[in-house]
Amino acid sequence: MLDRITASLPSLAPAEQRVARLVLADPRAFASLPVRELADRSHVSKPTVVRFCRSMGYDGLADFKLKLAGSVSEGVPFIHRSVDADDKTSDVLVKVVDNSVAAFLAYRNAASTTALEAAATAIIATWRAGKRIEFYGVGNSGIVAQDGQHKFFRLGVTSLATSDGHMQVMSATMLGAGDCAIVISNSGRTRDLMDATDIAKRNGATTIAITASGSPLARAADIHLAADHPEGYDRYSPMVSRLLHLLIIDVLATGVALRIGEPLQPVLQQMKDNLRAKRYT
Asked: Strand 133-137 and strand 180-184: pairing?
C-alpha cells in the first residue's frame, strides 16, 4: 500500500502530496489519528485529507484507515507480488484483488484523457453518420470485444464484434471512410489484428487501439488508448490486462452515453422493462 502511495505522488495535487508524505512518514499514527489532527499535521484542510483517500481509490478516510491499519499490522506487501505455492486461500484472495486494484489505479493516474476524448468523439461521429463500428480481439481480448459490442448495443449504438482472424480481415476489408474499428490486444503484436488494422486504416476508417504503449498496434492506430500491464507466466498470474481492457471499454461507453444525453434514458428504461418481463417469478 505504501509503495502504491509513493508511486502516485507525482500525480497528486500539492496539498494531497502533503497528506501522502504524512502517511509514508508514520503510517501507524495516520491509521489512528482523527481527521482534524491529520489535517493539522499535514497543513491542509480536512476535506483535502478525505480527497487524498479517494484519489487513492478508497471510499473515504475510514475505508483508507481500515486498509492501512490492516497493512501495518500484518506487514504483507501483496501489491504486484506473484502467487506462491504455499499461499493460503486468504493470501490468494488478497493478492489477486490487490493486483487488480493496483493496475486500475496505475491506469487512472497515467491515462490520457485527450486520447479517451478523441476515441469517444470518433465513435459518436461514426454512430451519428450511420456508419459501421466494429470491435476486434483475439483470445482474452476477444472476450473484451464481445463485451464492448454488448455495452454499446445497450446505448443504441449498433456494432459488430469478431474474435476470428479471418473474419476480422474480411470485415475490415468492407470498412470505409467514416467507419470505426476498435482493436484490442494486450501485446499489440498479434498478426491478424495488425492486418485488420492496416486494412481498415487503408480504407479510410478510424482505428482505435486498446493496447500496450510502444507496440506495433499502438503505432499503427489513429488513436491509442494505452493499457500497460504485462502478464507474467513463470507462475500463475491474474489476467489483469483483460480487466483493464474492460475498464477502458466502460470509460468509453460512459463517455458516449453522456454525449447521447437525455434521448437515451427512455430507451434504457424500456429495455430494462422488457428484460424484466422475461424473467421467471
From this structure: parallel
- Whole-model pTM above 0.85? no
For the stretch 76-120, pLDDT in tens is 444 446 677 777 887 788 778 877 887 887 888 788 899 999 999
